[in-house]
Amino acid sequence: AIVKVVSGIFTVGVVIMVLAGGSVFLLNHLYEQPGPLEASRNIVIQKGDGRIAIAEQLEREGVISNRWAFVANHLWRNWMGNEKPIELKAGEYEFKKTASMREVLETISEGKSVLYNVTVPEGLTSKQIVERLKAEANLSGDVAEVPPEGSLLPDTYRVSKGMSRQDLIDRMRTDQKRAIESLWDKRQADLPVTTPEEAIILASIIEKETGRADERDKVAAVFVNRLKKKMRLQSDPTIIYGIVGGQGPLGRPITRTDIDTKTPYNTYRVNGLPPGPITNPGRAAIEATLNPAKTTDLYFVADGTGGHTFSDTLGEHNAAVQEWRKVEKEQGAATDAPQPAAADGKPAAADPQTAKADTAIPSPAAEQPAAAAPVAVTPINAAASVSIPLPQRKPKK
Description:
mainly alpha; 8 strands; 8% strand; elongated
């Protein structure tokens, strides 16, 4: 009787082992064999879906042949694995033709989702960036609050479908912090900006003054030189920010009243830097701020070709202004734009506090990049006979 019992137990054990071995063999076969997909296709795995829901979707979409085999393989490999559990991650995934269950599971667990480009141009305010991300269909969720001005790094970001907008905002803030930390250590000596925060403020002005890569360090040099000489920056974009804040462009030409109105950001009326950034500068503008060109220039004015003429004396600058006015007049005649005379019929004077060192506004500043603002504002130069308001110029392509 004892022999029969032992024999029965042994027989049952052998049967169980055979069944288990056969099951493992079958699961492994299903795991490795080519799948039923007849052509490559993209599938979106929703956030919060469990393994059974994901397996049902994959079977329904024709990616795998059997949902239970997929679930069993996932559980088996989690149980047998010595490392952390295999997690199924949400996202949009591309599955190749005849992809095996192993390839499907690896793709989802490793998060190899389809990536999309989200481009945030330089020169946008934080509010504009948030609005731009809200319009991006591949992102999800809302942004908790508009980040501080100048705290985001404009760039092209690779995102997966369904990525949280707040997560991307957090990533942009982290990247901006890393960028300024790495560039700060490589800055020139004796800069008039003494903290990374001040560097971002100045970089934001430089970002709005020119969109040309070959001029950033020259524009930076003008403002650095003016700061060293205790001259006011007199930058038109700061006037606009003082009026509309982070809303974006002014939507009309700058007037004499705008220049005369004192705001914390109007660098025609305040000394030194404004209290904060006026936009989110890109890496190139930050680099130019911390490593400006070695020049003595104090002025720049548009040259009619999209670039600028730089001068280190007021006489040279005034001559360059006259050349720009000729071009501006031709452009105005071509568009039949009205140019009313100034109220007193005389050239506008510089701020009395800076008149001894500088009797002219340093430029009309550069046209704003098309990506940064849909409306470019024609600035005003105080040394030349100025018509106010001036006609709008089309932004650079």
